[in-house]
Specification:
The complex is a heterodimer. Chain A is α/β, with parallel strands linked by helices. Chain A has one domain: P-loop containing nucleotide triphosphate hydrolases (Rossmann fold), CATH 3.40.50.300. Helix content of chain A is 24%, strand content 18%. A six-stranded mixed β-sheet of chain A has the order 2-3-1-4-5-6, sandwiched between helices. In chain A, strand 5, helix 5 and strand 6 form a beta-alpha-beta unit. Chain B is an all-alpha fold. Among the domains of chain B are: 85 residues, Orthogonal Bundle (Helicase, Ruva Protein, domain 3), CATH 1.10.8; 135 residues, Orthogonal Bundle (Cyclin A, domain 1). In chain B, 58% of the residues lie in helices and 1% in strands. A two-stranded antiparallel ribbon of chain B has the order 1-2. The termini of chain B are far apart. Classes of the chains: A alpha/beta, B mainly alpha. Chains A and B meet through strand 2 and helix 2 of A and helix 5, helix 9, helix 12 and helix 16 of B.
């Protein structure tokens, strides 16, 4: 079943053994954003190593995880994929904000409303006592749909800067279904979560060396902000 | 400690009027078929037998029978179904975007071999159907998962009857999920742990320690498992069961599923994420008939009122629960389809699109109720019916019962 269901995708591709050592550190990351922005696609892609054929509405919360190796340490990344509809977030999802190490905000670049909802989502996090010390990143999804883009990179970058978040623009769509089979945007989805993991491991800014092969494709993994500003609290990633 | 495990499952159990189970020897498929047919032509319809058939082994057996029995379980006159929604149903609804989004991506619910064009047409029907119910019932709010219920009905009974059924279900069994917030849904989920506590304290304590919560069962509850079961035939089997049962039955079934996997749960790391993940995955090979029987036994042994008391659940504001008995009683006086057809034709009213909103009297009252549902005093309306209906006696009997239930029930009925 190559569907998004919510199967446990335990990948050991980056480790030599499938068994985690006794004291594996766990990074819990919650993925939030409006309905239909592609949260399930992104988390499935990262954990299963492939794109889901089709995804359905997430009801409540789905959980996915994957083992990765960072600087010789095996780390378990747990992704909490949440329902986008407001009624779920108000009374059902709170339970899962507890003990979260990082937050991924997702919006749909072809849907301005999903971008305008971001302040509400940020406020939601604040209410659950997730302050600015908790790493947060902003992901604009569906950048492959270039003809329907409603949220420009400039606007998004401004917003990300204002909230001290790095911005990524990506697509969780299966690259094989597009003209350019070599665009390798899968590596960018990989990069997003690995960036968070690195950040969590070091709690320092870092440069991720994910090879941007085929970077001439339609996918941009935008630069994080590197222009100083209030850089002390900001952190960024650069993969291209 | 594990009373349930020690108990032998009875071959078939039935849900009686109060939702509790009684024993009944297992009968063959042929015999069951004949019983269902007999029950359908009895006057009034033998609703007890139909409920029992829906809950016992094999459920209602075929889609053809479902099309006949499902409307009876919900007290719907199949000769007086609502019209197909008009074009304006899509205009100006706050949930329009959400509904379209959820329906268009719900591909998995349709049979695998179905041509894409046919599926697309059904999806459009589904959107109209959901919006129609929401427009008719401004007190109801759409939730993600509602579309999973709607599609199950649509695939079996077709658009117009599905609208009638969905309307009824939304006002009764699913009512709590359709509040402006999900607080009532949470309340219903809160019945799960007390059931487990009664049956397997060790498992219960393990889950409490893991702080797993009950959200793993959320999609089970609010979609009647339609969202999570890969096989449509299993979904149908459960729908037979739930249509004939108390609105809390999906929670009792959830309890049996957790209990069924008790060993696996206890072997898992006592951690929220791990336990949530394990439990939210429904195994492919669940013994549905066994679990349905166990759910009925649990219901009988630990009815909701008892759980509410023992677990000190806050006093229940659940509309689904509080209106259930009235709903059940309203199904007792239905005429068989051959009579309904004659009466409906005779009354020349096959068109009242409002009819299905109102429980209790419509089956006994084919007639001009569409027009009667206008403004004005409810009591007056009832009196007018009593006088104008061809089935005056039956009406008065029902009305009298309604009076006995008290004014709250009456208000819910009208």
């Amino acid at each position: 079943m190559a569907e998004s269901g919510s199967s446990l995708e335990l990948s050991s591709s980056l480790t030599s053994s499938t068994l985690p050592p006794p004291r594996t550190r766990i990074f819990k990351i919650i993925v939030i954003g409006d309905s239909g922005v592609g949260k399930t696609c992104l988390t499935y892609r990262f954990c299963a190593g492939k794109f889901p054929e089709k995804t359905e509405a997430t009801i409540g919360v789905d959980f996915r995880e994957r083992l990765v190796e960072i600087d010789g340490e095996t780390i378990k990344i747990q992704l909490w994929d949440t329902a986008g509809q407001e009624r779920f977030r108000k009374s059902m999802v709170q339970h899962y904000y507890r003990n979260v190490h990082a937050v991924v905000f997702v919006y749909d670049m072809t849907n301005a409303a999903s971008f305008r909802s971001l302040p509400a989502w940020i406020e939601e996090c604040k209410q659950h006592a997730l302050g600015t010390e908790v790493p947060r990143i902003l992901v604009g999804n569906k950048c492959d749909l270039q003809d329907s883009i409603q949220v420009g990179t400039d606007v998004a970058q401004q917003f990300a800067d204002a909230h001290s978040m790095p911005l990524f623009e990506t697509s969780a769509k299966n690259p094989n279904s597009q003209g350019d089979g070599n665009c390798r945007n899968s590596d960018h989805v990989e990069a997003i979560f690995m960036t968070v993991a690195h950040k969590l491991k070091s709690q320092k800014p870092l440069v991720l060396s994910q090879p941007p092969e085929g970077s001439g494709g339609t996918i941009n993994l935008s630069r994080g902000r590197d222009d100083g500003g209030d850089g002390a609290r900001s952190w960024s990633c650069s993969s291209c | 400690m594990k009373k349930l495990k020690r108990k032998k499952l009875n071959g078939g159990a039935v849900v009686n009027e109060n939702g509790s189970a009684t024993r009944e020897p297992e009968c063959g498929k042929k015999q069951k078929l004949a019983e269902i047919q007999q029950a359908l032509i009895r006057d009034p319809v033998d609703i007890e037998t139909l409920r029992r058939a829906a809950a016992t082994k094999g459920g209602l057996l075929t889609d053809e029978l479902r099309r006949k029995v499902w409307p009876k379980l919900l007290n719907i006159n199949v000769y007086d179904l609502p019209h197909k929604p008009g074009r304006d149903v899509r205009e100006n609804h706050k949930d329009y975007n959400q509904v379209v989004l959820d329906v268009r991506r719900s591909m998995k619910r349709f049979p695998k071999g179905m041509p894409a064009t046919e599926r697309a047409a059904l999806q459009e029907q589904l959107i109209d159907m959901i919006l129609e119910i929401l427009k008719r019932n401004p007190q109801l709010h759409y939730y993600q998962g509602y579309h999973d219920v709607a599609v199950t009905l649509l695939l079996v009974v077709g658009e117009r009857m599905a609208i009638a059924m969905l309307d009824k279900l939304s006002n009764y069994h699913l009512r709590d999920f359709m509040d402006p917030t999900m607080d009532s849904t949470k309340h219903i989920l809160n019945y799960l742990m007390p059931i487990l506590e009664q049956v397997d304290l060790e498992l219960h304590d393990f889950m409490i320690r893991a702080e797993v919560g009950t959200i793993f069962a959320l999609s089970w509850l609010i979609t009647w498992y339609g969202h999570v079961l890969p096989e449509f035939k299993h979904t149908l089997r459960l729908y037979d069961f739930f249509l004939a049962s108390h609105p809390l039955m999906p929670i009792y079934l959830a309890a049996t599923i957790v209990l069924h996997r008790e060993k696996k749960v206890k072997q898992t790391e006592c951690d929220m994420a791990m336990v949530h993940h394990l439990l939210s995955q429904i195994p492919q090979d669940l013994p549905y008939e066994l679990l349905i029987g166990q759910a009925q036994e649990l219901f009988e042994q630990y009815p909701p009122s008892l759980l509410a008391k023992r677990a000190a659940l806050q006093s229940c504001k659940s509309l689904s629960i509080s209106t259930f008995q009235a709903f059940q009683r309203s199904t007792l006086h239905q005429r068989p389809d051959c009579v309904l057809q004659r009466l409906t034709k005779a009354q020349g009213s096959t068109t009242s699109s409002h009819a299905v909103q109102h429980t209790g009297l419509e089956a006994a009252l084919p007639g001009e109720r569409g027009q009667l549902w206008g403004k004005g005093n409810r009591m007056v309306k009832m009196a007018v019916w009593g006088l104008s209906a061809t089935l005056g006696a039956a009406v008065l009997a029902v009305a009298q019962t309604a009076m006995e239930w008290g004014p709250e029930v009456l208000l819910q009925l009208f």
